[in-house]
Amino acid sequence: MISLALKSLWFRRGSLAITVISIAFSVALLLGIERVRTQAKENFAGMVSGTDLIVSARGNPVQILLASIMHIGYPASGLTQDTVQTVCSNRNVAWCIPIAMGDTHRGYRVIGTDLVMFDEFRYARNVGLSFREGRRFTEVSSAVVGSQVADSLGYRVGSKIVVTHGAGGESLIEHAAEPFTVSGVLAPTGTPVDRAIYVSMEGYEAMHEGFGGHANIDPLVDPDHAEEKSVSAVLVGLKSRAAVLGVQRSFNEYRPEALTAVMPGDTLLELWQLTGIAETALVWISGVVVLIGLVGITANLLASVNERRREMAVLRAIGAGLPQVTGLILGEAILLTTVGVVVGLVLFQVAMFGLAPMLRARYGFEIAAGGVLPGEWVRLGWILLAGALVGAFPAYRTYKRSLSDGISIRV
Amino acid sequence: MNLRVQRRQMGTDARLAAVELCDVKFGWRTSSAPLLSVPEMRFEPGEKVFLAGPSGSGKSTLLGLMSGVLLPQAGTIRVLGKGWGEMSASQRDRYRADHLGVIFQMFNLVPYLSALENVLLPLKFSKLRAARLQDPEEQARELLGRLGIGSDLLGRPAGELSVGEQQRTAAVRALLGQPEVLIADEPTSALDADNRDAFLELLIAEVELSGATLIFVSHDGSLASRFDRVVQLADFRTVAR
Description:
- The structure holds 2 protein chains of 2 kinds.
- By secondary structure, chain A is of the alpha+beta class.
- Chain A has helices at 2-11, 13-45, 61-68, 81-88, 116-120, 147-153, 201-209, 244-252, 264-274, 276-307, 309-318, 322-363, 374-405; strands spanning 53-57, 93-105, 108-113, 122-123, 127-128, 131-134, 142-145, 160-161, 164-165, 180-186, 196-200, 233-238, 259-262.
- In chain A, strands 1, 2, 3, 6, 7, 8, 10, 11, 12 and 13 form a 10-stranded mixed sheet that branches. Chain A has a two-stranded antiparallel sheet with strand order 4-5.
- Chain B is globular and about 50 Å long.
- Chain B has a 5-stranded parallel sheet, sandwiched between helices. A 4-stranded antiparallel sheet of chain B has the order 2-1-4-5, with helices on one face.
- Chain B is built from 9 helices and 9 strands.
- The interface between A and B is medium-sized, with 28 and 37 residues.
């Protein structure tokens, strides 16, 4: 019976191949969409990790996160040196990274920070920053650039950078007197770090001091305390994660200045929810893609059932039982789906390996190329089950027809 | 032992009928009047019977009943003394494979198998018929040769054979392993006159050689003279279609 089934499949290999290919494509597309979706979420959530709190002047948590991590917009105001001191010397705090922002260089953020950044900043699954070229800034006038900045502006170690004040383009005042020299280029991270230029806090302030007269046009910082309030936010790592709620409260209740301490993980997820519609749309699209594949199998099977009506009656007359004849159709559906899923899986892997480097290089989008994630196995299982269910319909039709046809064939 | 009991039950005739129908009623819906009603019909072993009837006379239904693919609403149908109703579905399939050979009007063969594979196919479903043959393939070749299917055609997919060749191949398939009953459903109607006569000649010769019962259904009355007996199917039809 098996060899008979195989010969039958071989006989119809042309149209069956098309069915298998259509299933394979929908499986590959489903897996691809799902992979991109989950990885996008992971990438997004991995923009910052290991940072327990972000402390900034009182404001909206999402806005603070957008400004300090994603470099979109600015915090409402800066923090005084006293506040930064107090935050960093809290007994629960293991490390703190001050961040000053407000300047750009050819569209890229210039961020004043501390060397601690290179030791303690973490992204993705607890990955620290590493250098593609050169090393940390050691002097007031040296700068470290993100990989994308280096790539698009052609910077290497030794390149000179002239900083513009404000987040706009070239039109604003240039701190021409204080050019920075690139001391290092960071390895790609797939996070906003790639699009930033890091200088020391002293360098950042010196840039302003050296250009002292301009402070009054800074709309973001209190003109009278421009230097004093240059720190926009502080990234804080705690000695123990368990203390996070208590520390958050203590910062939020800090008297001398109104502060907001943000837990970045939670806020990132909150932000991700905003993109929920797109995510849901992707889920639906991938569902529909599989549905189309399954409809393809059903259509093909039903057509072949009609084609094979006589064959079935002949087999019945020769002595094949109803279970055998029905099983032939059902088995075929399962086999087609299985082969389709396997081919689709291969297709998916090949595509992922082909696309992953391009995605990483062009969009800084990290995608795990190899293997099959647990959730994906589950999906594949569902597709197989659906294939069997889809096969049940033509199989049932064959069954009913075999009953009514008997052994005679109505032409 | 079992056979003797059944023979006694059958009463009057000491000989075991090849196929026997008793008070059979059949309709597609149980509620409506039966389509077919056969009070009694008997086919003796080795008998060659011509079942005559125009199309729509319930031939297909009758053949379905005789081969145990359809079951009647009432009455019994026995093949070699064993009633279809006594068997489970899978037993019926086995019994049919063991004791019946069937030839259709056309499209007898599984198109993706070669002529030889088609002929050998029933042996996969019937160990009994396979056991009757010492060398199935050799005997299949021999029988095919006698019916004019040369060795050059054996390996070809059945779909590539001419209609006449297909019908002869189907006859070989039905005969191989000597099933006791051969049912032929208009096997000649797709053939031209010359082919038809030649086919019938060969079929009857082989049936006589194997001693099988031949139930030959046709609307072509001119063939009836070659048979032992003619049964008019129209007599059993109860409802006009």
